[in-house]
Every structure is written in structure tokens, then in C-alpha cells.
Amino acid sequence: MDKHVSQLFRASIRLPRPDRSVETYRLSAPRDFPLRAARPFNRIAFSAGHVVADPLAPSDPWLDIAIDWDKTIGFREYLWDLGLGVAEAMDTAQRGMGMDWPNSLELIRRSVAAAKARGGALVFSGAGTDHLSTTGAHSLDDVIRAYEEQVSAIEDVGGRIILMASRALARVARDADDYLKVYERILRQSREPVILHWLGDMFDPALAGYWGARDLDRAMETAVAVINANAAKVDGVKISLLDKDKEITMRRRLAPDVRMYTGDDFNYAELIGGDAQGYSHALLGIFDAIAPAASAALASLAAGDTASFHDILAPTVPLSRHIFQAPTRFYKTGVVFMAYLNGHQDHFTMVGGQESARSTLHLAELFRLADQAGLLRDPEQAAARMRAALAVRGFEG
């Protein structure tokens, strides 16, 4: 063990506990994950990337959107280097929680251009209906036109589509038939096969009852019917229900050429790893925060080394479950905090002021779990940044 690594083992930080006591926490050495993919993967793996806010913009964070475009696209370059695809302008990028449609389209335009400059790095982008105002959809036709507008705009800049769940559709649809009508209309018009996104109401309460039923089995009947009836226009479906059994059940019912992309940030390791009856590909928000581990694990899986795959990912699961704990919609705060701790951005500022969405205790536990997973690539820097974040919140240790 060299002197530097030895010092890392002795590094410590004082962290608050829930009982208001203070713990002296000793950091471990980081795991040695490569910064480039070691080999092609045998799974398609998207990371839903976050956006980097511009903390020095002369704007009001709750009202205005200020993006550091260079840092934001630079983070996508880092994900592509690791062999991951980018799921662009999704909820991880605060779509619907700070990011509006004009800025999302600009993000998509820049990301698609950067991907093409690399020779075709993988990027699919979210098309939804979020440019409608809260009361802007009064009928299915309003929803259809809104979807058409976003799909067309993304296709016009050369992008591929992730068809996002629509708050407007959830509000105006009367039953399952209304969902069939809307999705079949949009899918018929798409230039290339799309990825559908079924986002559970734990991520967005406005999507409760999606597909025309609050009962998930009935909702799945409608979703599968839409997908299999339009299989030629569907690359795959991502479901984010945090229920591995529902995902496996749906996966087995999909048409043969339709992929399942897990969005389960609780059970991704076993769903990607698979079993005798199949596996899921990945489209995950947590892959933003654990990208080097995800890349190393996927390379091991592609090499047939399932033991190393699970050895790498197993310690990341407690971290992911913590970041995505209820209220799940605030997980973006943990994802961006990880980027700050690991030096991908120089500040912990978010669009819409969402850095305040998680408690100080939540961030302290995130730090512990990230360290235990070997994900703090420079522990001394991470500890210094953790101390700064704690100080701002009134904890001097």
C-alpha cells in the first residue's frame, strides 16, 4: 500500500447522526474503476443525465432557468466515454421540476450534436407534453398535438425518441381506450422506433392511474396491448415502478423484438444480470451517480464474469435505494450532490433551487454509502466538499 492510499484510510470527517450526535467517520479507499469502457457491453445501458446549473447567472433560481451548457455536455462526454448511452432531457434532468420545454429542446439539440461529433454515441431524448400549461389540455386532441410538436422538434434535430408519460394525458383520459388512441396515433407517425416510458406515481404523483387504471395489473394490460400492437414502431419500454416482479411479468409478455429497459433504481443489478428466463437492458437515473461502477460491472458481465458484475454493483444498491427513497421525486438532489462530491461540477446548485429538497442528514448518509461503495473517486476532495455543504447548512462538526 503506497503512502497516498495509506493516508486515505486515515482520512476522516465529522458527520451528524439522526439523534443529533456527531460521528467521526473514517473514509475508505476508492475502487479503481476505469474512465473508459473496457469492452463492448452485451446490454444496452442508458444513463439519464442531470443538468448542471449556472450558479453565477443573474437570475432568480425559482423563476428562471440558467444552465451551464459546457459542464452539462461535458458530463455527457464522460458518460459516453464509459460506454453508456444518454437518455436526454428526462426527469433526471429535472424535466417537469425546473426544466421547461424550450430549454429541454436546446439540451437535446446540443446533446445530439455532441453525440454525432463523436461518431454516433448513443442518445435518445424525451418527448412529452410538458409545454402545455396546467389547464392547457382539454381533450385528447390537445394531448396528441402536444406530443406531435415535441416529437417533430426532436426528430428535426436528428434525435431519437423516448415517449415520456404525460401529465396532461393522465388528467384528460377517461379510460384505457383513450391511451390506446393517443399512443397509436403518435407511434404511427414516428420516423424510427421509440422507447416508451411508464413512470410510476412515486416519481410523479400527477401520473397516478396511468394507462387508465390505478391497479398496476390492469394498467399493464393496456401498456402491453399498445406496445405489441405497434411493435414495429417500439424499440423498447422503460418502466419505473420500483417493483421487480411487475417488470419481469411485463418483460415476458412483450413482443420478441421489443426490449425491456429497467428503470428500477432499487433492483437494477438482478434485473440486468437476468436469469434463465431473460434480462432487462437499462435506462436508469442512478447510472448518472454510479457511472464508473455501472460501466465496469457491464464490462464484466459482457466478459461472462457474473460474479464480478454483482460484486461491483451490490454495494451501489444501498446508495441507490437511499437516493431514491420517498419522496422519490427528489432523487435528483442526491444525483447532483454525487456529481459535486466527485468533481464533475464545482458547486451544489440546482435548477429551481432543488438542492434544498433533501435534508442535511440525508446528504450525510449519502456520503457514507457512496464511500462504502468505493464511489468517491477523490476522498479528500469529497470530504472537503462535504464539510463545505454541511457548513452552509449550519453544521460545523
Keywords:
397 residues, alpha/beta, TIM Barrel, eight-stranded parallel beta barrel, 44% helix
Walk me through what this model shows.
This protein has 397 residues and is of the alpha/beta class. It has an 8-stranded parallel barrel with strand order 3-4-5-6-7-8-9-10, surrounded by 5 helices. A two-stranded antiparallel ribbon has the order 1-2. Helix 2 packs across helix 3 (101-117), helix 6 runs parallel beside helix 7 and helix 11 (291-302) packs antiparallel against helix 12 (306-313). It contains 16 helices and 10 strands. It is globular and about 60 Å long. It has a single domain (42-325), classed as Aldolase class I (TIM Barrel, Alpha-Beta Barrel).
- Rg over alpha carbons: 21 Å
Q: Domains counted in the coordinates: how many? A: 1
> What is the typical, i.e. mean, pLDDT?
95
CATH architecture: Alpha-Beta Barrel
CATH class: Alpha Beta
According to CATH, the homologous superfamily is Aldolase class I
Structural class: alpha/beta
Distance between the terminal alpha carbons, to the nearest Å? 30 Å
- CATH-derived topology: TIM Barrel
Number of helices: 16
In terms of per-residue confidence, which ranges show pLDDT below 50 for 5 or more consecutive residues?
none
The percent of residues in helical segments reads 40-55%
